[in-house]
Amino acid sequence: MSIEKLIEANTAALIALNETFTKMAGNAKDRQPSSPPAAPGAAKKANGLTYEDIKVPFLALCKSHGADVGRAVCKQFGHENLKTVKPEQFADVLAAIKEAAAVPAA
To answer: How many other C-beta atoms are found inside a 10 Å radius of the C-beta of residue 88?
Structure first.
């Protein structure tokens, strides 16, 4: 295949891509987004709580009572660490963290 034929084929492909992207952009403007896009690294919410809402007291518990106590709280809910706790468990985990923190440190 000659260089001219390759250039023609690539030019045709670029034109087709440009038309496709133009149509896609036009369709996107017509649609109303169902919800705004989440910010990168946005915390999941459940029951009005975010991961940060349980992370701060969890770290305080680990600092005051030890990492083993923190791990024990996570294991009550079937997790090895706080990062794997599901958002729907946040309220229960927070209650368990507060309960463990209320016990005097050994």
So the answer is: 11
Classified as helix, coil or strand, 50 is strand
The length of the chain is 106
CB 64 within 8 A of CB 105: yes
Q: CB-based burial of residue 43 (10 Å sphere; 0-12 exposed, 13-18 middle, 19+ buried)?
A: middle
Give the gyration radius of the chain's Cα atoms.
26
Quote the tokens at residue 47: 């029951």
**Is 47 within 8 Å of 91 (Cβ atoms)?**
yes
Q: Give domain limits for the chain.
A: 1-34, 45-102
Token pair belonging to 4? 């001219």
Mean pLDDT of 77-90: 93
For residue range 20-44, list pLDDT tens digits in order. 878 877 766 555 555 444 443 345 5
